[in-house]
Amino acid sequence: MNIIKTDIEGLLILEPKVFGDNRGYFFESWNQAAFEAAGICCKWVQDNESKSSYGVLRGLHWQAAPYTQAKLVRVISGTVLDVAVDIRKGSPTYGRHVAVELSGENKRQLFIPRGFAHGFAVLSQEAVFAYKCDNLYAPSSERGVRLDDASLAIDWHVPKEKWLLSDKDMRHPAFAEIEPWEERQ
């Protein structure tokens, strides 16, 4: 597995070793020992999968304490632009983001530690997106920030007139209005 550090501490791009032949391919999407050696020490408790069409944007979401989550995200088929925004209080990269193209073809994964808002835009005709979480989903703890907040300056690679958003995602507050994430015991 090739581990690529990003410009933001803790966010990691993971490129698995893919073994292919005329029958297809094989790769390990999770190997506890290998991931722990890379500093990813999570106990995954929930796997999620979504299918979306071109122009769907989901996010930017996170969960407040005590239900904060780290995520390991990947695309099974299609292509997305995956984005993680640093919302950690006091972080030197607070408000900055990393955007990475994940696809069924490149098999890349993104590890998103706790303290990040997360979202993605579907760039292909459709995409199947899968992710692991280290804490259960708790609707009462869900938080979000506007996908089009000018201060974040995220280029979603989809023209705004083609965006398909949920009603909930259209109502998220601006970045300046969110409460920064804090690690709480």
Blueprint of the fold:
Elements: E1 2-5, E2 12-15, E3 19-21, E4 24-26, H1 32-37, E5 46-53, E6 57-63, E7 71-77, E8 79-86, E9 97-103, E10 109-112, E11 116-122, E12 126-133, E13 142-144, H2 167-170
Antiparallel strand pairs: 1-2, 2-10, 3-4, 5-12, 6-11, 6-13, 7-10, 7-12, 8-9, 8-11
Mean pLDDT: 94
CATH topology: Jelly Rolls
**Topology as a string of helices (H) and strands (E):** EEEEHEEEEEEEEEH
* Terminus-to-terminus distance: 32 Å
Largest sheet: 6 strands, antiparallel
CATH superfamily grouping:
Jelly Rolls
Rough outline: globular
Order the strands across the largest sheet as they lie in space: 1-2-10-7-12-5
Reading off the top of the CATH hierarchy, the class is best stated as Mainly Beta
Radius of gyration: 16 Å
Low-confidence segments, ≥5 residues, pLDDT <50?
A: none
Fraction of helical residues:
under 10%
Report the count of strand segments.
13
Question: How much strand?
Answer: 35-45%
- How many separate domains? 1
Structural class: mainly beta
